[in-house]
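Why does residue order matter? Because the sequence determines the fold. Keep that principle in mind as you read this record.
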Amino acid sequence: MDWRSWTWSLEDELYLPKRKVSNRGSHYHHHIIGSFFSQKNKRTVEYESLSERLFYYYLELDTEVIRYYVQPVEVSIFEEGHEWFHVS
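Structure:
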């Protein structure tokens, strides 16, 4: 299968980013939280740590990687009668 000509609309819908990166307080932690434009994904990729940013940079440079998704899993957790969501 030729993945370079694949239409990614279904995967884009399924794996939409589930988190919002907040850079409040980023003046205390320069360049730890932020975003950059991904050439492979054709959209902005957000990160919350230096290691996460570095990992995305490696994915951008790797010639075997066609596309990747940012933290697509949202897990619902029931605790003491209420539900909350954990992004992993």
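The chain has a mean pLDDT of 78.
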